Amino acid sequence: MNREDLLFSIRTLSLSLDAAGFVSIAATTHPSDLVDALDTLSVDKTLPLLMMLEPQVRAELFAHFAEIRQDQLLAAMPREAVVQLFEHMPSDDRADLYNRLGEDAKQKLLPALTKVERDDILKMASYPEGTVGSATTSDYVWVSPEMTVAQALAHIRATALHSETVNILFVLDHTLRLRGTVALRDLVLANENRTITSIMHEQPVSAKAHWPRLQAAELIRRYDLLALPVTNGGDRMIGIVTVDDAMDIEKEQDASQLARFGGTVSGNGNDLDVRSTPLKQMFRVRVFWLAILTCFGIVTSTFVAAQEELLSQVIVLAAFIAPIVDMGGNTGSQSATLVIRSMALGELKLSWRDVWFVIQRELPVAAGLGITIAVLEAILAYFSKGVGMDVLLVVGSSMLVCTALGGIIGALLPFAARRIGADPATLSAPMITSIMDLIGVFIYFGFAYAFLGDLLIAAG
Amino acid sequence: MNREDLLFSIRTLSLSLDAAGFVSIAATTHPSDLVDALDTLSVDKTLPLLMMLEPQVRAELFAHFAEIRQDQLLAAMPREAVVQLFEHMPSDDRADLYNRLGEDAKQKLLPALTKVERDDILKMASYPEGTVGSATTSDYVWVSPEMTVAQALAHIRATALHSETVNILFVLDHTLRLRGTVALRDLVLANENRTITSIMHEQPVSAKAHWPRLQAAELIRRYDLLALPVTNGGDRMIGIVTVDDAMDIEKEQDASQLARFGGTVSGNGNDLDVRSTPLKQMFRVRVFWLAILTCFGIVTSTFVAAQEELLSQVIVLAAFIAPIVDMGGNTGSQSATLVIRSMALGELKLSWRDVWFVIQRELPVAAGLGITIAVLEAILAYFSKGVGMDVLLVVGSSMLVCTALGGIIGALLPFAARRIGADPATLSAPMITSIMDLIGVFIYFGFAYAFLGDLLIAAG
């Protein structure tokens, strides 16, 4: 069913409250699409539809709603249904949901669950947000090294009904330590009587629960894994991160790169989201960066104001301040994004070798850009304002130096940011602008005094 | 083996040329890690090591080298080995490699291959770069709808040795049209005698070969697929895109988002890469954007120069031009990145409803930012330069209007960009700066004449 038809059906069903109809649609529609359609209804209209579903189906669908939406639906749900959710939701999604409950709600919920569920939730929910543990699901299948292929397959048939994935199976010894992995594919292709030990992949890639979750996603991408085993401090396996979760993690991280560059990330590391972030927080985070830029700008403008004498002699100098200092920031922005991008792709690291390499590459380009833009600006300045040769010299020379210097400094800033442990994308943009503004006015008026200083002497 | 040990071993082996040693390491090391280590050697030293491997192993390793490196190695390789590469490499990687050969080399290569290989290469290589087809591999396993589970498993065992993936199997009818998909997991869990038709997932998500490859990656991420079937114009299946390739596609795309915002993407859509892009191209692309900004800047500076009379009366006005017009660009940059990010995550679409929604959210924030920054600037201006009330009024009012307006315009620019079919990230940054510079000086001098105009009358 295409998008419009689905939307129409859902709207009709929400009015007619036709349970059989909705259950049927839910059975044949992918959760992502169904959630998109349901998102166009209010919570009051969505809930009755959800309650028409079997608990298992409802829980799987629920996990696909955005977190904000989940919280709204949960608040309106009868207690029975809430407990059922926690019984049937995938292990990692329900741990996240649990962490968003208030203390009161948590205390009410836990006694209603079985011990197995309670232990699982408490364990999975104990990992701080942003860690590998918080992205881990305990829904995986494990086998023993001594099993034969036939026994392993039988074990899978018996237990795998609700696992997140059985494409990769994890070989654990009796102490629950990870000994290897074996692909379902290998089990299917191998002779029945071989032992797991003889076909398993030893020394598998794994991640620790306390690592940043981005590291898990990178490992999955680098090694083309379907699922990454996660161990705790004692090397015991606690769960897995699946490749689909890895894709989502990377998507969020990369969406955040531009946000960090544009100064729209709050202190706790969360991107501002234009749709969902509370307006107060939006204001607070943005005003922080703008205020910083304003304060930096005061230094620059105070310096310019102090050049009153020279300016009053050559008013037209005022017209070129902005374009010249801007160009340093523009060029620096370009080289910074080049370096940030390569760092994000893992191509550049924080090493003197890479710094030197970048400088070698940027120097000729920045010089070339400086000369070209300086000539262009001088030509345009002459034809638009008819300024004299001496002012052209000032404008051209400053443009050249600012552009070239901006390029070099912009390329070095991401390295400097990482050196002090800050995020390159966050630090670079405001820093480039501010630094090049300040350097720019010094250079500009420096050349102005050099070429036009005689005017002051003459006047004074 | 950890990174340093591996590096040491590889270096030693490249000197001792110990074939057995290298083959053994290659067998126990993941290709990604081995390639990282080999990248530290020159091509002359890498090639002898590669030639120690069996053709199949060599081809799988080769596919992990960066494209530049692949081309260098290929050029140094004996012809026999080149043919072997094309015989054994994964179908999508070798199609890419084929497309990078010169016409001469292509003509020499094709006769040396079997017909099956030749047809496959020509077909897979025919899809333009950037399309789904160019990311497609023909290494997949298909089954017929009438097969039983037992027959399907037997078929897999017979044919699956070198398939990219058998976790998902594709159900094709006798005309090679895609009828459904079935997971290996489902085959393992189902009763042997059931037919494929009874357990397959009908109406599977698929992609057309001519679609942009990013669309394939998005489908894979949205529907949590392991492999996405790809069909041609006639609805016949030509291959699959696997989830690991989807992760790589998205990684490149997202790395490019920042590049586009920073003005470092060439006309053909390729990101500039600080390490590998030829310096001439680097210069050409960057000077293009900087020149555009310079030309826009001339309009602004010409206008400022024309305000000579007012400026000569109130020199200190010159000091505030840059901070005020900059703030419009800064605020606009923030709101633009917010909108671009949400667009990239699929949360905002090109629709009046979303435009209106964004304006509603941005208006109060932009107004609040405007007031706050205007007051801050006025205070700083007073204490740093001791300017009079009238100048403070000019500075404060312009700052307020520029900041607020910048925020609104910045939020709308990505929508405008998409409306004219341009990429929002590419268009927004230079546009914001230029537009807000121009609007900024108009507003600034507008207020200046309003509050300080009497000075001109008095003087004139």
3D structure, described in words:
2 copies of one chain form a homodimer. The first copy, chain A, is α/β, with parallel strands linked by helices. Chain A is built from 21 helices and 7 strands. Chain A has helices at 3-16, 19-28, 31-38, 43-51, 55-62, 67-76, 79-88, 91-100, 103-109, 115-125, 149-159, 184-189, 196-199, 213-222, 243-261, 279-306, 308-313, 317-344, 352-385, 389-419, 424-459, and strands at 142-143, 168-172, 178-183, 201-202, 207-208, 227-231, 237-242. In chain A, strands 1-2-3-4 form a 4-stranded mixed sheet. In chain A, α11 (149-159) links the parallel β1 and β2 (168-172). In chain A, α4 (43-51) crosses α6, α5 packs across α7 (79-88) and α16 (279-306) packs parallel to α21. Chain A is elongated. The relative contact order of chain A is 0.06. The model of chain A has no long low-confidence stretch (mean pLDDT 87). Chains A and B meet through α11, α12, α14, α15 and α16 of A and α11, α12, α14, α15 and α16 of B.
